[in-house]
Write a structure and sequence with these properties.
Shape: globular
Structural class: alpha/beta
Radius of gyration: 22 Å
Order of helices and strands: HEHEHEHEHEHEHEHHEEEEHEEEEEEEH
Distance between the termini: 57 Å
């Protein structure tokens, strides 16, 4: 049974909300800017928010007030065991990532028609470097169809308080949450999808690095090892240009090849570095990948594959190669039920990749409706693979545009 169909355990919801707020408000320096208009909303409404922190659903609950929120979340996080039971009790609406999905959309419509409040993260995944992701295209159509009030939340400081790449837990500092009514009741139905998405993008976009620059005194986010795990996104050395050579040690990123060093401060900025912050570093890495010869080669990794029902099969150790228009994974030796080496081809994913930076990434195979989890031997390879995929997609797009131009010119 989908946990979203079993309702919300109101007692557990209230307990989690009250206890977490008592603990997290002083620890993380949470500041919620009150909005009386939102607290007076009686009927159903949709909440949209930027996604920067694993605790964002709790932050949204604090901002909305006494109303119970149904959260839309990735089903992979709550697939088994205690997490699945917790999802059932909290009434989460689970959405599969990468696969075609209609059930979560149906559950959102059912919840809104039942006078409930639903929270959606339009970006679909947490921020990588403090800046926002592009929004999911199909959300505007759903909002237009629901035609109910839309509340926008903007969470500042959430990324810096718990970076996606970090090896440590919460970094005490400051989180500021603002809210406003983006669309009143019946307004979305009279608004174009393009204008709906434009309004949401403007309302929820955040950049924690710019937020820090705009403060008279930047917030310090406390951590014993602020750079721990940062090599999982900032892996290429800006001095020797070699990939997967950076390693995080306490507050420093150090190149294992040329010993280049950069120090990460408690406010999220670098000192003694040509980049101001990790966002600038990752943008440079991407521009380097797009402009320089491909130095990817192949990576050693383990893989497993699972069906949409969650049945998992260990595929053992193998090698991953990125070709011009596809990825190829080949096992080192026969594993599991196979009698020969497995060779699997994947089209380059154009809709993004679910990844735990420094750990693994998922690839969806529509041919047999299976999801493959690729776990590199070197966790820094996750970011390197995703950059290479973007590089190949960009080359294919440029090639297609060039071909279209030649065709139109010859008519």
């Amino acid at each position: 049974m989908n946990p979203s169909s079993s309702g919300v355990n109101r007692f557990l919801y209230s307990l989690v909300k009250v206890v977490s707020r008592c603990l997290l408000t002083p620890l993380m320096g949470i500041r919620v800017k009150p909005n009386a208009q939102i607290r007076r909303l009686n009927g159903p409404f949709l909440v949209v928010a930027n996604h920067v922190n694993l605790l964002d659903p709790l932050f949204a609950a604090y901002a909305v007030g006494s109303r119970t929120i149904r959260f839309v979340a990735g089903e992979e996080v709550f697939r088994n065991g205690i997490a699945h039971k917790f999802a059932r009790s909290m009434g989460l609406i689970l959405r599969p990532q990468m696969r075609p999905d209609f059930s979560s959309t149906r559950d959102i419509i059912r919840a809104i028609r039942g006078d409930e409040v639903v929270l959606v993260f339009p970006e679909g995944q947490r921020s990588l470097n403090g800046e926002g992701w592009p929004l999911q295209d199909n959300l505007g159509v759903l909002i237009q169809k629901l035609n109910v009030p839309v509340v926008a939340l903007k969470i500042n400081g959430g990324y810096l308080s718990w970076p996606r790449w970090s090896k440590s837990w919460i970094r005490p500092g400051r989180i500021e949450i603002e809210s406003r009514i983006l669309f009143q009741d019946r307004e979305p139905g009279d608004t174009s999808v393009e204008n709906i998405m434009g309004a949401i993008a403007e309302a929820i976009y955040t950049d924690d690095n710019a937020w820090q620059r705009g403060r008279a005194k930047p917030v310090r986010f406390l951590s014993f090892a602020p750079a721990g795990g940062l090599q999982n996104i900032c892996h290429r050395c800006p001095k020797c240009k070699r990939p997967m050579t950076m390693v995080g040690r306490r507050d420093q990123l150090i190149c294992e090849s040329c010993e280049y060093r950069a120090r990460l401060l408690a406010d999220g900025r670098f000192s003694d570095c040509e980049f101001e912050n990790p966002a600038e570093w990752t943008r440079w890495q991407m521009s380097f990948a797009l402009s320089e010869p491909n130095d990817f080669g192949e990576i050693v990794c383990r893989a497993d594959r699972r069906t949409k029902d969650g049945d998992r099969e260990d595929m053992g150790e193998g090698r991953l190669v990125v070709r011009e228009s596809e990825l190829i994974w080949e096992s080192v030796e026969p594993t599991g039920k196979e009698t020969k080496k497995v060779r699997e081809r994947f089209s380059l994913p154009k809709q993004g990749v679910r990844a735990a930076y420094g750990k693994f990434f998922d690839l969806y195979q529509p041919r047999n409706d299976r999801t493959w989890t690729i776990t590199p031997q070197d966790g820094r390879a996750v970011m390197f693979v995703l950059e290479t995929i973007e590089r190949q997609l960009s080359k294919l797009s440029d090639s297609s545009a060039s071909s279209d131009g030649e065709a139109s010119g010859s008519v």
